[in-house]
Amino acid sequence: MCLAIPAKITELDEGNMATVDILGVTRSISIDLTPQATVGDYVLVHAGFAIEVVSEQAANETLDLIRQFPEFAEDVQPAPAV
């Protein structure tokens, strides 16, 4: 099953990329699909892409649910170094 996970944009990088925080894990994602996204926004991340900007309240509600299920939270791991 694939899920879109809420993440907070912490930094805008070159080439329509952004750094996000997902439950304490930092990842680099593409914001090609959400060019309006900026630092401090919450976005839904799926397959390395921000697919939608969401409200902080909606993001936190979803993150709170994820935290209640450790098996989901365990899936949010740092990407392997390349």
Describe, in short, the structure shown.
With 82 residues, the protein is of the alpha+beta class. The chain has helices at residues 56-67, 70-73; strands at residues 5-13, 17-22, 25-30, 42-46, 49-54.
Q: Would you write up a description of this structure?
A:
- The protein has 82 residues and is an alpha+beta fold.
- It has one domain: Roll (SH3 type barrels).
- It is 20% helix and 39% strand.
- It has two helices and five strands; from the N terminus they run E-E-E-E-E-H-H.
- The protein has a five-stranded antiparallel beta sheet with strand order 3-2-1-4-5, with helices on one face.
- A hairpin with a 2-residue loop joins strand 2 (17-22) and strand 3.
- The longest helix is centred in the last third of the chain and has 12 residues, at 56-67.
- The chain starts with a strand and ends in a 9-residue tail after the last helix.
- The model has no long low-confidence stretch (mean pLDDT 88).
Notable characteristics:
82 residues, alpha+beta, SH3 type barrels, five-stranded antiparallel sheet, 2 helices, globular, Hydrogenase_HupF/HypC, carbon dioxide binding, iron ion binding, HypC/HybG/HupF family hydrogenase formation chaperone, Hydgase_assmbl_chp_CS
